[in-house]
């Protein structure tokens, strides 16, 4: 696939080029998640539910406090999402081993199957985009997005990612 437009060489800090980059992020994000959005909507769920499923799948027995930090949402808004997922039999919680007040989140078998189905489509989309773009572009994408997220989120990201 040929890129529709490219910014002028060496002029990436111009307002119109920065806006173009923001436009790219918006269109890529919404189109990338469209299949998952439709699948979840049919179940009465949305993107907030998907984020929880995704991160709990990434890190089983994830503490609610850590999930709050990752998502950057309020305890109240997360509570509603956790209740929905628990009521639908997709998520379970258990007290922490050392601190019984801590709540550790895990996906149920049904929740794991749903997250896997959603991820499989996203994985195919990312793999296709990576393959069409090439290694240098993928490395650039990782660099740009890590610099967009800032130090606090970069530390959370590092706690999730490990390559073997």
Automatic annotation (TrEMBL):
<protein>
    <submittedName>
        <fullName>MarR family transcriptional regulator</fullName>
    </submittedName>
</protein>
<dbReference type="InterPro" id="IPR036388">
    <property type="entry name" value="WH-like_DNA-bd_sf"/>
</dbReference>
<feature type="domain" description="HTH marR-type">
    <location>
        <begin position="1"/>
        <end position="150"/>
    </location>
</feature>
<dbReference type="Pfam" id="PF12802">
    <property type="entry name" value="MarR_2"/>
</dbReference>
<dbReference type="InterPro" id="IPR000835">
    <property type="entry name" value="HTH_MarR-typ"/>
</dbReference>
<dbReference type="InterPro" id="IPR039422">
    <property type="entry name" value="MarR/SlyA-like"/>
</dbReference>
<dbReference type="InterPro" id="IPR036390">
    <property type="entry name" value="WH_DNA-bd_sf"/>
</dbReference>
């Amino acid at each position: 696939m040929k890129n529709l437009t490219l910014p002028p060489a060496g002029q990436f800090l111009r307002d119109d080029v920065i806006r173009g980059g923001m436009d790219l992020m918006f269109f890529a994000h919404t189109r990338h998640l469209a299949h998952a959005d439709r699948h979840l909507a049919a179940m009465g769920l949305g993107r907030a539910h998907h984020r929880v499923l995704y991160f709990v799948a990434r890190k089983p027995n994830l503490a609610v406090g850590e999930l709050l930090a990752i998502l950057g949402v309020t305890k109240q808004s997360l509570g509603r999402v956790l209740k929905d997922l628990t009521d639908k039999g997709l998520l379970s919680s258990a007290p922490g081993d050392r601190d019984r007040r801590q709540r550790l989140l895990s996906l149920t078998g049904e929740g794991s199957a749903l997250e896997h189905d959603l991820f499989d489509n996203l994985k195919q989309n990312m793999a296709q985009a990576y393959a069409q773009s090439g290694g240098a572009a993928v490395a650039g994408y990782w660099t740009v997005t890590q610099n967009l997220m800032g130090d606090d989120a970069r530390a959370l990201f590092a706690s999730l990612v490990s390559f073997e």
